[in-house]
Amino acid sequence: MVEVIRVETSNPAVRVEIRAIGAGAFCPGCEAWSERVHSSYLRFPADLPSVGRRVVLALRVRRFTCPDGSCPRRTFVEQVQWPPGPGPAPGARRRHPHPLARGPPAGRGDLP
Ligand SMILES: [Zn+2]
């Protein structure tokens, strides 16, 4: 899961900065949970063609410090699933149906 941090439209290209949602990540070495951000940097996973303008994705990736002092990894980079998996998140579309999509109430219009 990712969230949009900001969108810059001042350049010829539209730049969309995104990051992973979540306060921390699991260390791939010892599987300890860490929320101690060591540093972060930008990745550019894809340039998307747009209508007349280029869209540049900037993915902010964080490096965490492993809380386990004996872990050989010491720091690790969070794994961000990008592009996101197919389809919307469960329940994301169903909660608020568009009012115009409902159609007329049932039963009306058949009366004499
Ligand atoms: Zn570790």
Report on this model:
The protein is mainly β and 112 residues long. It has one domain (2-83). 0% of the residues lie in helices and 38% in strands. The strands form two sheets. Strands 1, 2, 5, 6, 7 and 8 form a six-stranded mixed sheet that branches. Strands 3-4 form a two-stranded antiparallel sheet. Strand 1 (2-8) and strand 2 form a beta hairpin. The radius of gyration is 22 Å and the shape is flat. Bound molecules: zinc ion (ZN). The site of zinc ion has 8 residues, from loops.
Strand content: 35-45%
The overall pLDDT average reads: 80
How many separate domains?
1
N-to-C SSE series?
A: EEEEEEEE
How would a crystallographer describe the biggest sheet? 6 strands, mixed
How would you briefly describe this protein structure?
With 112 residues, the protein is mainly β. The chain has strands at residues 2-8, 14-20, 25-26, 33-34, 37-43, 47-49, 54-65, 75-77. It has no helices and 8 strands.
